[in-house]
Write a structure and sequence with these properties.
Helix content: 25-40%
Largest sheet: 8 strands, mixed
Number of domains: 1
CATH topology: Rossmann fold
Shape: globular
Number of helices: 6
Number of strands: 8
Strand order of the largest sheet: 1-2-4-3-5-6-7-8
Distance between the termini: 30 Å
CATH class: Alpha Beta
CATH superfamily: Alpha/Beta hydrolase fold, catalytic domain
Length: 211
């Protein structure tokens, strides 16, 4: 796998560290922007679930871009408590879109804090969203996506330490075009079960392609 360094530029003038890996296929079937967990709790673009997706999805003909939110490692700026990080996801989307033909659908995939940020970006280029263990606490914009007709997948951990799946299911009960999967035995960190997250994401992309 050839990992290519990239730079994402935000609308408020920051430069973000990023990495791109192309689909292992002559024509990618999708692109994925991967959004990492909370920076103040050690989250980076190399966190376990993001790395598992970044490593696995290219084998399923998906080109991926992962990035560090503002203030993380070599990215400019400082943590903004989820207020400005939506700009970071938008910058990553812009960068990935520049790598792909306009006909290739792009999904926003986030884990934990990154899921809340991904589920806050309302852009016409987004074909769907995957929220992995989203706390639904770091953004007030997620309900707008919840009522968007484009498809969404929520991958929840049975033993999530931060917010129980039943709470997320209740909070999103009125969301449209939303599928929810609970990974048995998983904690918020999906240790030993990242393969389940990958499988669920690939299945979502399979369904997306059929519609």
């Amino acid at each position: 796998m050839t990992v290519i360094p990239r730079v994402c530029r935000t609308s408020d003038g920051l430069t973000l560290e990023a990495e791109f890996v192309a689909a292992r296929a002559s024509h990618p079937r999708a692109g994925a922007v991967l959004c990492h967990p909370h920076p103040q709790y050690g989250g980076t673009m190399r966190s376990i679930v993001i790395s598992a997706l970044f490593d696995a999805l290219p084998d399923h003909a998906v080109s991926c871009l992962r990035f560090n939110f503002r203030g993380v490692e070599n990215s400019d700026g400082a943590h903004a408590a989820g207020v400005d990080e939506v700009r970071d996801v938008e910058a990553a989307l812009e960068e990935l879109a520049g790598e792909l033909h306009p006909s290739v659908p792009i999904v926003l995939v986030g884990w934990s804090f990154g899921a809340d940020m991904a589920l806050s970006v309302h852009d016409s280029r987004v074909a769907g969203w995957v929220g992995i263990a989203p706390p639904l606490r770091f953004s007030t914009a997620t309900d707008a996506i919840g009522h968007d007709p484009r498809p969404k997948l929520l991958v929840l951990a049975q033993h999530d330490e931060f917010r129980a799946p039943a709470e997320i299911e209740a909070a999103t009960a009125d969301w449209v075009a939303t599928k929810r999967i609970v990974v048995p035995g998983a904690s918020h960190f999906f240790v030993g079960r990242t393969d389940r997250v990958v499988d669920a994401t690939v299945a979502f992309l399979d369904d997306l392609r059929q519609h």
